[in-house]
Design a protein that fits this description.
Elements lengths: L10 H4 L13 H11 L3 E5 L5 E6 H11 L10 H15 L16 E2 L5 H11 L3 E5 L5 E6 H12 L1
Parallel strand pairs: 3-4
Antiparallel strand pairs: 1-2, 4-5
Helix pairs in contact: 2-4, 3-4
Length: about 160
């Protein structure tokens, strides 16, 4: 692999494009199942025109779990098991039919594919998020970039 200056690298160079997403009207239970099946810690939430309208993250789901009450120590395990336990808890409390739009973070922090990785990292830091939706000029979702994607790119640039 050829070394490339990290300052020259763009979001499009490292973003994930094989995406799984939720819709605002999906049940939280279905969204959580999607997260477990695809081994992801967050889902972009898209409208009927594929515009990113928010993000549903593990943090959003933990906040829901806190609302449900009970012991959360059991959720402090491996990510997959935590999702499974949360799913079970949602189903037993009747919250499994709550919709994504009631739980998600409604402001999607976005960048465009041509944004530099350095700029994207700054956006993450300023907004205290671990992932960014990558959208085109019409706000249509075209990818996701995580803090780990940027760390990986930095490591690759160092050789």
């Amino acid at each position: 692999m050829q070394k490339q200056d990290i300052h020259a690298r763009r979001v499009r160079d490292v973003m994930a494009t094989d995406l799984v997403a939720a819709n605002p009207g999906d049940s939280v239970s279905d969204a959580l199942k999607l997260m477990v099946e695809n081994r992801v810690s967050a889902l972009p939430v898209i409208d009927a025109h594929n515009r990113c309208v928010g993000m549903l993250s593990g943090t959003d789901l933990l906040q829901l779990a806190l609302q449900l009450g009970g012991e959360l120590e059991a959720l402090n395990t491996s990510e997959g098991l935590a999702h499974e336990l949360l799913l079970e808890k949602l189903e037993h409390t009747g919250f499994s039919d709550q919709v994504v739009s009631e739980v998600m973070t409604h402001v999607a922090v976005t960048v465009q594919p041509e944004t530099t990785l350095v700029t994207a990292a700054g956006v993450m830091i300023r907004n205290r998020v671990h992932r960014l939706a990558v959208t085109d000029t019409k706000q249509v979702l075209v990818g996701l970039i995580s803090s780990m994607d940027i760390v990986r790119a930095v490591a690759e640039s160092e050789g």
